[in-house]
Amino acid sequence: MVKYYRNAFIIHFLLFLGMIVSMFPFYWLIVMSTRKTSDMFRFPPKVTFGPELATNVKNVFANIDFFTAFANSLFVSAVSTLFVLFFCSLAGFSFAKFDFPGKKVLFISLLITMMIPGQLSLVPSFIIMQKLSWVGTFKALIIPGMVSAFGIFWIRQYASGAIHDDLMNAGRIDGCSNFRLFWNVALPILRPALAFLGIFTFIGNWNDYLWPLIVINNPKKYTLQIALSQLNSIYNTDYAMVMAGTLMATFPLIVLFLIVSRQFIADIAAGALKT
Amino acid sequence: MRKTNFSVTAPALSRTGGVLREIYKNRTIYLFISPFFLLFAVFGLFPILFSIYLAFQKWDGIGKMEFTGLGNFRYLIMDELFWQSIFNTLQIWVYSTIPMLFFALIIAFLLNSSFIRFRNVYRVAYFLPNVTSIVAVSIIFGTLFGNRYGFLNFLLTAFGLEPVEWLNSSFWLKIAIATIIIWRWTGYNAIIYLAGLQSIPNELYEAARIDGANLAQIFFKITIPLLRPVILFTVITSTIGGMQIFTEPQILVGNSGGPGGAGLTIVLYLYQQSFINHLFGYGSAIAWGMFVIILLFSILNWKIVQRNEKL
User: Fold this and answer.
1) How many angstroms separate the CA atoms of B263 and B257, rounded?
2) How many CB atoms lie within 10 A of CB A16?
3) DSSP class of B185
4) By C-alpha distance, which of A102, A119, A120 is closest to A110?
């Protein structure tokens, strides 16, 4: 019994230690958003909350168009996510529940595309955007990412187990077209898989940096990550202000994650183990 | 209407006729899966083919293209910065992946212990870094790694050690970048390992415990061997991710890659040459150089794992 408690204590102690390391940068972010830059580089540094949050936030608004960048990120991420949900569920459902010539080849080639590093085509992709006059517009951010191989794969895995053939046949007997089968029969069942794919896609788009950095050259169209990077490189003497901006840009996503965390984490693991 | 037409085709043609009929019957399904293939053709396949063409050109994106044959590749092989960026990337990959997967395994192993409460709290806390943007994370760590008065130097001096100029030293800059990667991805890998562990039957642990095995013995004799396929998955994903490191050094030390180019990764170099110096042809050659390196590295990786499997 003593050994049991000793082991439990050791395990909790180690896990708690790791948790502190994992959480400390967030704590530091919040604390430094409430302080002056000079407090950050003091020996010993101040690690308690200060009174400067309002000033720092005001400085963020003075230096970058925070709300525009926020709205841009929200718009791009939301629209991309809606497209991904629609096109991926449509294709994933088709791969799971229909037999058609070439299905295997098409699905395997879809999986292969997942292994191609995107950076390979960075330059020509940019040139295509130029030719289409999409540079500096949200089209460049949304349209190439409207459907993802991972999303189709994820929905297919879920749909093959969750949608029963009886249900499909019943729908067919009722005279449903293939699209009605998808919309009325499959979609309601796919809801849990869609929830994960939606959040996963939204977070990915929200955090995307390299591609927007290349194709968005107009400050009015900056996404949050670009605005944040600008804030950091131009005003890097006022770290407290930069930290406040970083806090404001990350906070919504952290809240979103905390709300859905339990199921989301389980799905991340499931997605990894399936592939 | 069409159906009756097909049914009267000659027997010799019935096979192809059958396939065509199947294709026609499923035309809406092809429509349903077409968006991916169309988008991939336009924004995936075409750019890749185009980049092969570009790699043989000299072009700044505005003026006329100039065919240079193998010129870009000849230059690439002699380009010290290119090789430096490869070695930087590999070094950062080693410094980050090994500790990251090691910590992740330990965390997953501890979380899987039968007497753990608050498991979900731990999982959320460990996973949270992964949903935070790399830009934000790099900015936060940039202040922690301050050259003189950063928080980490405070800790070092508090323990009586010499402060480190993290962002000015070729070695410590890589450690700083690796630390950011470790911090952001350990929880993610731990969650995957945990799911893998939970599929290992509990009786095995019970039996080991009854036999008097301690925690370390259980970890090395049961956990690791049974987790092999999952470990392989995480090694592959972190190799792919590790070869594409860009944001961390770009935010920490800028487009140049820092003092002496110590933080210049392959993708950062590709970005710098293509979009800062506007060398589109050369940028494409770098991309293909990178692709070959990743390919060789993946094959090597795979061979090593395979050989270990046999032992």
Assistant:
1) 5
2) 12
3) H
4) A102
8 Å CB contact between A227 and A66:
yes
Mutation for testing the A interface, residue in B33, B127, B269, B297 having most A CBs under 10 Å: B33
Whether the bond between B47 and the residue before it is cis, its omega within 30 degrees of 0, is no
Residue A215 near residue A134, CB atoms below 8 Å:
yes
What is the dihedral angle through the alpha carbons of A196, A202, A203, A206, rounded to the nearest 10 degrees? 180
ipTM of the complex in this document: 0.92
Locate all alpha helices (DSSP H) within A52-102, ordered by sequence. Answer: 53-63, 66-97
Collect all residues of chain A within an 8 Å Cβ-Cβ radius of residue B269.
none
- Type of residue numbered B224: I
β-sheet bridge partners, residue B57: B67
What whole-number distance in Å separates Cα of residue A22 and Cα of residue B18? 60
Using CB atoms, pick whichever of A7, A101, A146 lies closest to residue B23.
A101
Query: Please, are residues A45 and B144 in contact by the beta-carbon 8 Å criterion?
Result: no
pTM of the model: 0.90
Shortest Cα distance, chain B CAs vs residue A99, angstroms: 8
Q: CA nearest A233: which of B274, B168, B247? A: B247
As beta bridge partners, residue B58 has B66
Query: How many residues are there in chain B?
Result: 311
Residue of A nearest to B114 (CA): A8
Nearest CB partner across the interface for B29, out of A94, A225, A257 = A94
Alpha carbons A232 and A226: distance in angstroms, whole number: 10
Cα–Cα separations (whole angstroms), residue B21 to A204, B4, B14, B17, B123: 41, 11, 10, 6, 52
- Total Cβ atoms within 10 A of residue B61: 16
For A66, residues 6+ apart whose C-beta sits below 8 A from its C-beta are: A60, A227, A245, A248
Nearest partner of B283 among A165, A194, A126, A48, judged by Cα: A126
The tens-digit pLDDT sequence of chain B (311 residues) is 344 444 444 444 556 778 888 888 889 999 999 999 999 999 999 999 999 999 999 988 788 888 988 999 999 999 999 999 999 999 999 999 999 999 999 999 889 876 667 888 999 999 999 999 999 999 999 989 987 778 888 888 888 888 888 998 999 999 999 999 999 999 999 999 999 998 888 888 888 888 888 878 888 888 888 888 898 889 888 888 899 999 999 999 999 999 889 999 999 999 999 999 999 999 999 999 999 988 888 788 777 766 665 54
Phi, psi at A147, each rounded to 5° = -150, 140
Other CB atoms within 10 Å distance of the CB of residue B299? 10
SS3 B62: coil
Q: Say if residue B145 is exposed, middle or buried (CB neighbours under 10 Å; 0-12, 13-18, 19+).
A: buried
